[in-house]
Write a structure and sequence with these properties.
371 residues; alpha/beta; seven-stranded mixed beta sheet; two-stranded antiparallel sheet; 11 strands; 49% helix; globular
Length: 371
């Protein structure tokens, strides 16, 4: 839905039908208008409790800049629930940018990541451009950092690596065993470097791992914790050591004030964290399991095992083309150059229902019959 809103809003900024040209003010206008439309529709689909809180929140005009009672109350809740200091950030990419930017320095610019990490691929290595970071990829680390290769890389840089960053859940929806997180924490402690977590899907990862978020965060020095995929209004940048707070705020302000430090966001975020986010994560994972089982039951293979709320079926290209007349999804994952097959990514969310999962499964069956 949000993608269609973006497309419609962008068309209004186009100077010609085939060329998009706009300035920064135009981009900010699009973001503002799309978010207004998105939340207006989202609130209508939510519980009565959420709608009541949302209506109250939007009446609290102006930005709090982190000093108002609502923002302080939400930060206190995060401290109590997760054991972390926090700032609210507009997007996961911005949270990663600020978090990694606070970790690196001219003397220690290195950050070890996997080769498919969001930081390096979909965020276009922004931390290198803005903060002089050097993103480093250890050997044998496509989706999971190989611990021994990571150790070798850190030692080869002779003290110039400041952090290790991991994504949880990763780009294929996989999670890690607790033993791996413990070993990663031990490695960082031995080498005196920080451990950063990209937790855009952190709550569904914690659900799949049967962990409390507080326990998962305890292994990390700093993390970008996503809520927007589960109904939240913004993302959370978390860090455990309060001595790190001035560096976080200095890094953040060097990019300009973030307009997501609003009273409304703080109010909505507190409600989601207290009442809905764990339930939303559990629901998303449960429905993904039902979806995966239904797809396998049609003799369609999954490219990767389902662990969280992402399902990666291998469709014939013809089947995917038929489905995409009714559904919007990516279908370019893991293609092996075989023009006859594609790997799709299907994701369940808080607004997904059992009825909509069954409807999708029936649509797949109907399309199979027509091929």
């Amino acid at each position: 839905m949000r993608l269609r809103m973006w497309q419609q809003a962008l068309q209004e900024l186009c100077h010609t039908p085939n060329q998009i040209k706009f300035d920064l003010h135009g981009i900010l206008w699009v973001m503002s208008e799309v978010n207004k439309q998105y939340w207006a529709e989202y609130v209508n689909r939510k519980s009565a409790g959420y709608s009541k809180v949302a209506k109250f929140a939007v009446r609290q005009s102006g930005s709090g800049y982190g000093a108002d009672q609502f923002t302080e109350a939400t930060k206190a809740l995060i401290k109590d629930k997760f054991g972390c200091e926090s700032e609210f950030v507009g997007t996961g990419t911005a949270a990663n940018l600020i978090g990694i930017g606070a970790c690196v320095s001219p003397e220690r610019p290195g950050v070890a990541i996997t080769s498919l990490a969001h930081l390096g691929v979909f965020e276009y290595r922004g931390v290198e451009r803005y903060f002089g970071a050097e993103l480093l990829i250890p050997g044998n680390s496509l989706l999971t950092l190989d611990l021994e290769e990571t150790r070798k890389l850190i030692k080869s840089k002779h003290g110039r690596v400041s952090a290790v960053s991991v994504t949880l859940a990763n780009e294929r929806g996989n999670v890690y065993p607790i033993s791996y997180l413990k070993a990663l924490r031990e490695l960082c402690d031995e080498e005196d470097i920080l451990l950063h977590g990209d937790f855009a899907r952190g709550f569904v990862a914690a659900c799949a791992m049967n962990l409390e978020m507080r326990q998962m965060l305890s292994y990390f020095n700093i993390a970008s914790l996503g809520t927007m995929k589960l109904g939240g209004p913004c993302e959370i940048l978390c860090w455990r050591n309060s001595d790190f707070s001035p560096k976080i705020r200095e890094t953040r302000m060097s990019l300009g004030h973030d307009p997501n430090s609003t009273v409304a966001n703080a109010i909505l975020l507190r409600y989601i964290l207290e009442h809905e986010i764990a339930e939303n994560a559990a629901k998303s994972v449960k429905l993904a399991k039902i979806l995966a089982q239904g797809i396998i039951g049609m003799d369609i293979s999954l490219e990767w095992a389902r662990e969280t709320n992402q399902v990666f079926p291998r469709f014939t290209r013809k089947l995917s083309e038929m489905l995409k007349t009714k559904y919007m999804y990516y279908d370019d994952y893991g293609n092996r150059g075989d023009a006859k097959e594609v790997v799709a990514r299907l994701i369940t969310s808080p607004t997904t229902s059992a009825k909509s999962v069954n409807r999708l499964l029936q649509t797949i069956r109907d399309c199979q019959k027509r091929i």
